[in-house]
């Protein structure tokens, strides 16, 4: 069985309308043999910028997707290199970066701009982002509950993000 995060990513992917280009960065552990001695397998984790990007022909939106059961998401779930890379990308014209956070127990999803995330981590002494912060500072994504999966209104999310963050 897939973990909740992978299910969230898959449900998000199939929710993207065909007018918006969706590209997922490959992740996972890679390994290869060493110099021929046979006992030198090397493993490493790819360090992607984020999970995916969306592009509508004029705006590029980088997203890191996170799913968590409780009403807060631990900051330790978000890697520092991803935050740094998302911040760097957002300095370019027509590029927006952020987090898409699913609170799976209550079936609510929020977009947080990476700048809002950084403001929170800089000014709060918490080790997790609470649901209340996402409600106050984020954009809630419309969720349609199906029998065993969810669909997200990605078109509206994209429009809301562009209207607010660009």
Outline:
With 166 residues, the protein is of the alpha+beta class. It has 5 helices and 12 strands. The chain has a single domain, classed as Trna Endonuclease, Chain: A, domain 1 (3-Layer(aba) Sandwich), CATH 3.40.1350.
List the helices and strands and how they pair.
Layout: H1 4-15, E1 21-24, E2 29-32, E3 42-45, E4 52-55, E5 60-68, E6 72-74, H2 80-89, E7 95-103, E8 108-113, H3 114-123, E9 128-130, H4 131-137, E10 139-141, E11 143-145, E12 150-152, H5 154-165
Parallel strand pairs: 5-7
Antiparallel strand pairs: 1-4, 2-3, 4-5, 6-9, 7-8, 8-10, 11-12
* CATH T-level topology: Trna Endonuclease, Chain: A, domain 1
**Which segments are poorly predicted (pLDDT under 50) over 5 or more consecutive residues?**
none
Helix content: 25-40%
Classify the secondary structure makeup into a structural class.
alpha+beta
Q: In order across it, which strands form the biggest sheet?
A: 1-4-5-7-8-10
What is the total tally of β strands? 12
Question: What is the distance, rounded to the nearest whole angstrom, between the alpha carbons of the first and last residues?
Answer: 39 Å
Strand content: 25-35%
CATH structural class: Alpha Beta
Globally, the shape reads: globular
Largest sheet: 6 strands, mixed
Helical segment count: 5
Number of domains: 1
Q: What is the CA-based Rg, rounded?
A: 17 Å
Can you put this structure into words, describing what you see?
The protein has 166 residues and is α+β, with helices and mostly antiparallel strands. It has a single domain, classed as Trna Endonuclease, Chain: A, domain 1 (3-Layer(aba) Sandwich), CATH 3.40.1350.10. The chain is 31% helix and 33% strand. It has helices at residues 4-15, 80-89, 114-123, 131-137, 154-165, and strands at residues 21-24, 29-32, 42-45, 52-55, 60-68, 72-74, 95-103, 108-113, 128-130, 139-141, 143-145, 150-152. The strands form 4 sheets. The protein has a 6-stranded mixed beta sheet, with helices on both faces. β11 (143-145) and β12 form a beta hairpin. The longest helix has 12 residues, at 4-15. The radius of gyration is 17 Å and the shape is globular. The termini are far apart. The model has no long low-confidence stretch (mean pLDDT 90).
């Amino acid at each position: 069985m897939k973990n909740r995060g992978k299910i969230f990513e898959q449900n998000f992917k199939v929710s993207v309308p065909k007018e918006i280009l969706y590209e997922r960065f490959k992740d996972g552990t890679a390994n290869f043999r060493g110099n021929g001695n046979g006992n030198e397998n090397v493993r490493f984790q790819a360090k992607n910028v984020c999970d995916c990007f969306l592009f509508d022909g004029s705006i590029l939106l980088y997203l890191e997707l996170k799913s968590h059961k409780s009403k807060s998401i631990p900051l330790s779930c978000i890697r520092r290199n991803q935050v740094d890379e998302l911040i760097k990308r957002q300095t370019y014209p027509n590029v927006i970066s952020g987090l898409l956070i699913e609170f799976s127990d209550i079936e609510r999803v929020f977009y947080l701009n990476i700048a809002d995330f950084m403001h929170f981590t800089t000014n709060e002494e918490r080790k997790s982002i609470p649901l209340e912060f996402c409600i106050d500072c984020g954009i809630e994504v419309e969720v349609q509950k199906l029998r065993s999966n969810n669909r997200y209104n990605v078109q509206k999310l994209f429009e809301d993000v562009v209207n607010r963050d660009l």
